[in-house]
Amino acid sequence: MTINGVGKLFISRNCQVFCESNQDVTDIYYKLYREIIDCSKELSDKAQDFAATFHQLQRMISQMSDHHKRVQSNSQAAAFEQIAKVATSSGIYVKNLGDVIRKGLADYFKYNMDESESFRDLFNQREQLYSAF
User: DSSP class of residue 5?
Assistant: First the structure.
C-alpha cells in the first residue's frame, strides 16, 4: 500500500485459503471467546461463594476450639485451631484463584474477542481491494 492507497497485491494460494476461511474462523473464535468469558465469570462467582463457605467453616471450627479450651481439652483445641487455619488459607486460595480466573483469563479472552472484529474489518477491506482489481 502507498500513501494514496494504491499498491500491488500478490495473492498466493495460502493467502487465498486464509482469506476464504477467515469469516468462519473469526465467527468460531468469537463464539468460543464469549463462552470462555462467561464460564470464567461463572467460575469466579462460584469461587467467591466457595470461599465464603470456607470462612463459615473456619468460624464454626474456631468456636469448637474455644469450647475445647473452656473444658481444658488443650490437645483438641490445638487440633481444631490448626484445622481452622487450613480452612482460612483454603478460602483465601479459592478466592484468589477466582480473581485470577476472572481478571486474567476472562479479560485476556475479552481482548482477543474484541480483536476478532479487526479481522472482520481486515477481511472486508481485502474483499474491497480484491474486487477493485
Answer: S
- Would you state the torsion angle of the CA atoms of residues 31, 37, 42, 48, taken in this order, to the nearest 10 degrees? 170
Cα–Cα distance, 40 to 37 (Å, whole number) = 5
Return d(Cα 110, Cα 36) in angstroms, integer: 9
User: What is the value of pTM for the model shown?
Assistant: 0.63
Q: pLDDT per residue over 37-52, tens digit each? A: 899 899 999 999 999 9
The tens digit of pLDDT for each residue in 75-121 reads 999 999 999 999 999 999 999 999 998 888 888 888 877 777 777 77
Q: Which residues of 44-82 are buried (b: 16+ CB within 10 A; e: fewer)?
A: beebeebbeebbebbeebbebbeebeeeeeeeebeebbe
Q: Tell me the C-alpha to C-alpha distance, in Å, between residue 125 and each of 18, 48, 82.
A: 14, 45, 64
- Phi-psi region for residue 9, left (φ > 0), alpha (ψ -120 to 50) or beta? beta
Rounded Cα–Cα distance for residues 6 and 95 (Å): 55
The Cα–Cα gap between 85 and 91 comes to 10
